[in-house]
Design goal:
Number of helices: 4
Helix content: 10-25%
Radius of gyration: 17 Å
Strand order of the largest sheet: 4-3-2-1-5-8-10-11-12-13
Length: 217
């Protein structure tokens, strides 16, 4: 199965030349480290930067240059820094071609829960709700199961929803899945992972058609 870096590498294969891409906190931030050679992609962070680069090397961090998750980042040549109002105008105006988010749960109809666990203190919604309400192309990067081994890909989310019917694709440590009207459609399996293992780890509706190829990362 994949680690977090492997998930990021696989999602990087979904990038298209010329796209503006929003990277959510967590696993999605790693994608900036794995952009395929020759691809011109501009990463946006909701706290107000366009042209976010990969993480800095140790000792080269700039504490004033951070992403929405307060991690130190780099800026590509020509990057722009602006206020949150401009950043969210860009998001709400649908000027972003791809949004990549982490999630705690995803339902087989595309619902996503990624902002709150009842009883636990949170700082707030952040930009997650704006992103899922405005984006047409949402990929979720997540672990297939929780620490207890229970599926995070469900028939119905149990946690408070961030958005409904919005997720298009999911990349986990076990598989790549498209979200269809009939449920999760298995597209690829992680190296060394069997279809049966994915079926056992998926609580929501899972469509398996034909021979499922092993993903290349």
């Amino acid at each position: 199965m994949l680690n977090k870096e492997g998930i990021a590498k696989r999602i990087a294969q979904e990038l298209k030349d010329g796209w503006y891409v929003n990277l959510g906190i967590g696993i999605p931030t790693l994608i900036a480290n794995y952009v395929p050679d020759g691809l011109n992609v501009v990463f946006q962070s909701e706290n107000g930067i366009l042209g976010m680069g990969p993480f800095p090397f140790e000792g080269e961090e700039d504490a004033d240059l951070i992403n929405a998750g307060k991690q130190t980042i780099t800026a590509m040549p020509g990057a722009a820094i602006f206020d949150s109002a401009t950043s969210f105008a860009m998001i709400r105006g649908q000027h972003i071609q791809l949004t990549v988010l982490g999630a705690m749960e995803v339902a087989d109809n595309g619902d996503i829960a990624n902002w709150k666990i009842p009883g636990k203190m949170v700082k707030g919604m952040g930009g997650a709700m704006d992103l899922v309400a405005s984006a047409d192309n949402i990929i979720v990067a997540m672990m297939h199961t929780n620490r207890a081994g229970k599926s995070k890909l469900l028939s119905k989310c149990t946690l408070p929803l961030t958005g409904v019917n919005c997720v298009k694709k999911i990349v986990t440590n076990l598989a790549v899945l498209d979200v269809t009207p009939d449920g999760f459609k298995l597209i690829e399996r992680a190296p060394g992972v069997s279809v049966e293992e994915i079926q056992n780890a998926t609580a929501g509706r899972l469509i398996v058609e034909g021979d499922i190829p092993e993903m290349v990362v």
